[in-house]
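## tool: complex_structure
## caller: assistant
## args:
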Amino acid sequence: MKAKVLIRPKEGILDPQGKAVERALPALGFEGIHEVRVGRLVELETDDPAKLEALCEKLLANTLIEDYEIVEDGE
Amino acid sequence: MIGVVQFPGSCDERDAVSAAERIGDTRLVWHEETDLAGLNGVIVPGGFSYGDYLRAGAIARFSPAMEAVARFAADGGPVLGICNGFQVLCEAGLLPGALLPNEGLRFICRQVELVAEDFGGPFGAQLTAGKTLSVPIKHMTGRYFAPEDELDRLTAGGQIALRYAPGQNPNGSLRDIAGVTNEAGNVLGLMPHPEHAVDPLTGSDDGLALFRALLAAPQSVAA
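## result:
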């Protein structure tokens, strides 16, 4: 199975990267864009999808500071 | 004997060895080593272990040496994590909290003033509460974070070891925290680099005190 894991800074945690992107947007003519958060995308193929969640908890995300979401990649 | 863990991507292990040698015999511990018998204390040094891929310290925590360090710490051995070493210890769950990218998104390299808190364990025994230390920082991911209730618990339990001096918080760390210990007090992690502050020639020898704690404990036999 192919999957994507989306990892984001947890809500309420200051994301300076998102803020920096947000601040740059008006200068480029992109108005009205708010609440920008920058995260990570991990693409993978797995033979054992049942273990994906454990993999996220143990390695891909630090759940103290990040939320993750597993998205199955339809072929 | 003091051991300094060396990961691929470590870069401050030699300075850590040189600093620790001022206190006593010191050797490097390669990341594949699992036998820490004979060590009195362990340093997890600064650098960019395994490239800091994914998150700072996230991959190093799974190295064989870190599993040995976790056992060493559980047996009460003193462990000092510096900068990347602090990040590794947090990822490994040996210390509470996490380190996030600096608020200003920049790599910061400069001398900072720290204030020692009233904290326990072998490291706390070396520092008087309220003492100020001049130690350099050099990091991009040093913003200490823990949930508010956890911060309250750490404060009440005397686990906050060092704070940046008032008005000098360089990275947005919550409650100006520069270093914390585990509950037992035998594991200390801090973002500033005490191994770069061991000789007045280079500005300060305030960092030496922390290395003394590594030899204060009896030698480990198992691990």
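## assistant note: Chain B is about 20% helix and 25% strand. The interface with chain A takes residues 54-55, 58-59, 62, 91, 97-98, 100-105, 145-147, 172 of chain B (CB under 8 Å). Handing back to user.
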